[in-house]
Write the C-alpha cells for this entry.
Amino acid sequence: MRWHTRLPFTAKHGGQVKCYPTKNCRVGFYTRPDALPKGEGFSPIQRIELMKMILVSACLLGVKCRYDGESRPDERLLEMASEVVFIPLCPEQLGGLSTPRIPARIVGGNGEDVLNNLAKVIDSSDRDVTGQFINGAKEATRIAKLMRASVAIMKEKSPSCGVRFIRKNDSTVEGMGVTSALLMREGIQVISSDEINCYRLKPMAGR
Ligand code: SF4
C-alpha cells in the first residue's frame, strides 16, 4: 500500500488517498469498501466514494455475449473481480443486437470515424448495423457516467470494444472500436484487455 496523489478524490481527501496500486500502475484500484483498511478514518460514505468503478467488456468476465454466443473470460480479470467493482456490459447487446448475431466490421475507417459519420458498421450479410453500434456506445457511456466509472477495460480487436486494434476482413488493423472511441472522447480512461498485466492487485496484507 502507498500514497497516491494523482487520483480524482485527492482534493477531497486532503491531497492524498491510500490505495493498493500494482507494479507500474497508472491508476491504482480502489478496493471494495469492506476491503479498505480498517481505522483509516473514512466514514462509510467516504469508503463507498473511494471505490473505483471499472467498466469491463462483459465477455471478458465470462458472459456469453459474443456474436457466436461464446465468451472470452480473462483469468486476470476474474481474479480481480472479488477486489474491485466491475460494471460488465456488452455494447452490441445494449445497442439492440441479438446473441448470437452475425459478425460485423467497420467499413471506411475506425470507431472514431463511425462516430463522425465517416464510416459504417456492416455485418457479414451486408446489413448496416451502424445505428446499433452507435446506440450501444451511447448506452455504455451513459452507464459509465451514471456509475461514475473513470476507467474501462475493453476487449481488444472488437469493432465495438477494440482499443488499439480492430478486426477487418480477416486481418487486424490499427484503430479503436466505436464504444471505446466514445468512452475516450467522454474522458474515460480506456485500457486494452491486452494491457492489463500491470493492473493486477497485489495480495493485501492482513487479509
Ligand atoms: S461488444 Fe464488446 S463486450 Fe460485447 S461481445 Fe463484443 S467485445 Fe465482448
